[in-house]
Amino acid sequence: MSLEFVSLETIQEIARQYGxxxxxxxxxxxxxxxxxxxxxxxxxxxFLAGSGELNYWFVLASAIGGAVLGDNCxxxxxxxxxxxxxxxxxxxxxxxDEQLQEVRTQFIDNAAKAVFLGRxxxxxRIFAGPMAGIAQMPYGKFLLCNTAGATIxxxxxxxxxxxxGRIVPLDQLVAWVAQFAIVALILVVxxxxxxxxxxxxxxxxxxxx
Length: 209
What we know:
Blueprint: H1 8-18, H2 20-31, H3 38-50, H4 56-92, H5 97-109, H6 111-117, H7 124-134, H8 139-164, H9 170-208
Helix pairs in contact: 1-2, 1-3, 2-3, 2-4, 3-4, 3-8, 4-7, 4-8, 6-8
């Protein structure tokens, strides 16, 4: 999820004008923690490759490179900026300090999975890098998970737009991918929130007894 303040038509025009640089910079800035429509730009790049305007392999390389670089920047921002920075970022997305603290705890317990799979989850794609730095995740482990996750994510996004974009309108494809990312976010939130609710409920019952 990102701040979709740029229309799909404008993104297409930018991608046509700047080509692989648009894909590289779009996803790298989003993964660094800036809420830009990097995922949409990547899909547009794959779509343009499918229509013969760009080269599939160069789009894929740009997406992978941008994703890896962006998350690395996010990691070091989180490592140097620390928890206060995350609290400020959380306010942008209207998360309370308590919610972010719980997310931080869950992230520390599942850091490798979050970095590897987080790209497919709305918001987590933006927060995964900084959170890994804040959680002091070993850089070597982060780099491995980050690179593997970026490669799989980019391959799925670019290939999806390259092939499916030939038979499905681009705006519909972008909408489907965004909906999937939101559903994934809801599942992640439920995975975090349900155990907290159950624990709180159990404590209330114990107090009554």
